[in-house]
Design brief:
By secondary structure, the chain is α/β, with parallel strands linked by helices. It has a single domain, classed as TIM Barrel, CATH 3.20.20. About 40% of the residues lie in helices and about 15% in strands. It is built from 15 helices and nine strands. It has a seven-stranded parallel beta sheet. It has a two-stranded antiparallel ribbon with strand order 3-4. β3 and β4 form a beta hairpin. α5 crosses α8. The relative contact order is 0.11. It catalyses: Hydrolysis of terminal non-reducing N-acetyl-D-hexosamine residues in N-acetyl-beta-D-hexosaminides. One of its GO terms (cellular component) is membrane. Belongs to the glycosyl hydrolase 20 family.
Length: about 350
């Protein structure tokens, strides 16, 4: 938890006001669920030392609130869920080889009714523990091969007349999940779902109040153009992939990105409601989270608060100053302009 608190401190220093917390991934399920305790008991790296219990989650939310930062949680599905299967394997897809199960598990099984019962019960707890009115649902599927190998899913695809378009299966799943979120929140409150761009490009159109997260840097302008044309609000990552280290001074590329530069109309530009500097956990843990993130994320922060950038060399000087100020606050970031001296 220490490094999550440091992340909140750093965000507050540069006036970033939303912490998107991807709580779980394929590698680990550290969230302690009272509804499904085996998720963390069997899915975390260690059930005692590598988990977030109810009190710790509440402490982080309050710590962030006092610093003007809201916390939006993400439990990405249907993929990135191998850790779920350690405790509850029946909700995942069995992978096949030569017409026989090969012992591996893939994404959640969208043809199993119990999958959606499980999700409804789980999200009843999530919306209680995380009180924010936004919820990141993810939706990107990286490994379709398991779905394609499973005869039950192939049969379901045929019955739904999806053909070989597994994007339609993703859309079917996300439609069901969004309905679940609406059901568990009831009429007294509304949660706005945030969906990965691939959900949109796969054909999701049913809930225009959903927000599309434009993650890709290569297709940023195209996807932003298409999503805003359909009337969706979007948040953009694009070049702000902090876990990808392109060069020692890639912060310059981060600073030069204008997320409203995509060839849209003024009306479409108004639908670009924010940006997200991402530190995905593929190769990230507590040993490098802070150094990868800071002060590089400040380039995104400044562009989000200041439409017109200043001279990039002057910004680089201020970034070095920020590095020193963060170091004084025990936030040990990366010296973006090389070794230097921080005055006492």
């Amino acid at each position: 938890m220490e490094y999550l608190f440091k992340t909140i401190d750093a965000m507050a220093m540069v006036k970033m006001n939303v912490f998107h917390w991807r709580v779980t991934d394929s590698q680990s399920f550290p969230f302690v669920s009272s509804t499904y305790p085996e998720l963390s008991n069997k899915g975390a790296f260690h059930p005692q030392f590598c988990t977030y219990d109810e009190e710790e989650v509440a402490d982080l939310l309050e710590y962030a609130r006092l610093r003007g930062v809201r916390v939006i949680s993400e439990f990405n599905t249907p993929d990135h869920t191998l850790s779920w299967g350690n405790g509850y394997p029946d909700i995942l897809t069995k992978c096949y080889k030569d017409s026989e199960p090969d012992g591996n598990l893939g994404p959640l099984n969208p043809t199993n009714p119990e999958t959606f019962t499980f999700l409804e019960n789980f999200y009843k707890e999530v919306v209680t523990r995380f009180s924010d009115s936004y919820l990141y649902l993810g939706g990107d599927v990286e490994f379709l091969s398991c779905w394609k190998s499973n005869p039950e899913i192939v049969q379901f695809m045929d019955s739904m007349q999806f053909g070989d378009d597994y994007g339609k299966l993703v859309t079917y799943y996300m439609d069901r999940l969004v309905e679940i979120i609406e059901n568990v929140t009831g009429s007294e409150s509304t949660i706005t779902p945030i969906l990965h761009e691939s959900v949109f490009t796969n054909g999701f159109r049913s809930k225009t109040n959903a927000i599309i997260h434009v993650s890709s840097s290569l297709d940023r302008k195209t996807v932003t153009q298409l999503a805003t044309t359909e009337g969706f609000n979007v948040i953009v990552t694009g070049e702000w992939q902090l876990d990808v280290w392109l060069s020692a001074d890639d912060w310059k590329q981060h600073y030069e990105q204008d997320i409203r530069d995509f060839g849209g109309t003024d009306e479409q530009s108004q639908l670009v409601i924010g940006g997200l500097a991402a530190v995905w956990g593929r190769l990230v843990d507590e040993t490098n989270l802070i150094s990868l993130s800071w002060p590089r994320a400040a380039a995104a922060a400044e562009r989000l608060w200041s439409r017109n950038p200043e001279d990039i060399e002057k910004f680089g000087e201020r970034l070095s100053e920020l590095h020193c100020r963060m170091a004084k606050n025990n936030i040990q970031g990366y010296p973006v302009n090389g070794p230097g001296f921080c005055p006492p």
